[in-house]
Design goal:
- This protein is α/β, with parallel strands linked by helices and 194 residues long.
- It has a single domain, classed as Rossmann fold (3-Layer(aba) Sandwich), CATH 3.40.50.
- Helices cover 34% and strands 20% of the residues.
- The chain has six helices and seven strands; from the N terminus they run H-H-E-H-E-H-E-E-H-E-H-E-E.
- It has a seven-stranded mixed β-sheet, with helices on one face.
- Strand 4, helix 5 and strand 5 form a beta-alpha-beta unit.
- The N and C termini lie far apart (44 Å).
Length: 194
């Protein structure tokens, strides 16, 4: 990172570090995927500020169960804990080491459950709101969309860095609304399944 960019980003990085520490430890950096052959991408952190933006306008009630698909180190779970402290929260992570570390760090949070494995097979039946930060490739995204359809229940998908919208856009049972906030670092969308 160039010095000018580092200086410009320093306030955001400091705020993120302080929020991370409030939930147990620093979560900066990317963890390279050992499961690329399964369609999984590297684990990176969602910026706290962008989580505020992508969830703006998403209706989340006290009975909603929120699922972080590909939760990685759990920064999004940190944000969800702060924003929706009374809701049941799930994190699903394919990488067993990453999953175990996140589960251990958040073990005292009674409303948080972190499970390890394939998100297309581990969707909690009670899940209603799903957050994705581009966790996997188009093939797995198609399987994920099919798994949501097979459940036969309404769902809201908050999709940050929405690279693979096609499985949702090509099926009339899903409604796709792309977010047009220029402050977002990545293309994002909210997908609903009625």
């Amino acid at each position: 990172m160039k010095l000018a960019t580092a200086i410009q980003r320093a306030p955001v990085m400091l705020r993120s570090a302080l929020r991370d520490l409030r939930h147990g430890r620093l979560l900066g950096g990317t963890v390279r995927s050992r499961h690329e052959h399964l369609g999984a991408f590297h684990a990176t952190n969602s910026p706290y500020e962008d989580l505020d933006r992508v969830f703006r306008g998403v209706s989340v009630g006290p009975a909603d169960v929120i699922v972080d698909v590909g939760c990685g180190k759990g920064r999004s779970l940190n944000w969800l804990i702060d924003r929706f402290p009374a809701n049941a929260l799930y994190g699903i992570e394919l990488d067993p080491e990453l999953c175990a570390a996140t589960a251990k760090r958040l073990r005292r949070r009674r409303n948080v459950t972190v499970v390890c494995g394939d998100a297309t097979r581990l969707i909690p039946p009670e899940g209603t709101v799903f957050y994705l930060f581009n966790p996997f490739d188009s093939t797995v995204m198609s399987r994920f969309a099919d798994a949501l359809l097979e459940r036969g229940r309404p769902a809201t998908i908050v999709y940050y860095n929405a690279k693979f919208l096609e499985p949702f856009a090509s099926d009339a049972r899903f409604s796709v609304r792309e977010l047009d906030d220029p402050a977002l670092a990545h293309r994002s969308a909210v997908v609903t399944l009625s």
